[in-house]
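Page 47, continued from p. 46.
Same chain as before, 228 aa.
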Amino acid sequence: MTELLQHQIEYYRARAPEYDEWFYRRGRYDEGEAHTRQWELEVRQVREQLHSESGFPHILELAPGTGIWTAELIKIGERVIALDASPEMIAINRAKLLSAAVEYQQTDLFNWRPERQYDMVFFGFWLSHVPSVKLSRFLESARAALKPGGRLFFVDSKGVDRAKSRTGTEDLGSDLQQRVLNDGRRYEIVKIYYDPEQLTVVLRAGGFDIEVRATDNFFLYADGRKAE
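Result:
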């Protein structure tokens, strides 16, 4: 497991320069105009839910990547503390946002334990990369990082990307995928696709008052609180 997770970190370090191609449906992820419009519509649905509350003094963002969601968090919070294992992702995020409201820390989230509590915890497209054997411990850490009644919000993949026939993504079973970069390098990573109702049960058992929802095609998201 340790070797697999190190391989996953290496993959995201190598993928950092091309990550935005996936989110913005460019290059080999472009499935056509209608697909992109629907993708953007569902992104907007998640973004509007995220912006349904604001005024958070301190937000903790786990695995912020290139800053796609960090840019949204600085609109609803006074300060964002962003933890990522990839210095390459952090560098792109920092250069993109140029925001004094964001503090970056290079951190291996599989060994991370919070040293303080925050008003909100956010993670985007991260939970699906947490192995099932490490999920309960990760949720314990996320809960410990929240102040009483603090907000938890996350967004993730609903299912396998339709563009996988062109991107080389291959499901390997046992919650594993093979991913291929633009230059042909191949990596094995953890990727788990959750059922919203089952994940809701897991999160509530982990101490969150929350419900996982799904957009029509692409995303799971949840907006809730640390249960008393």
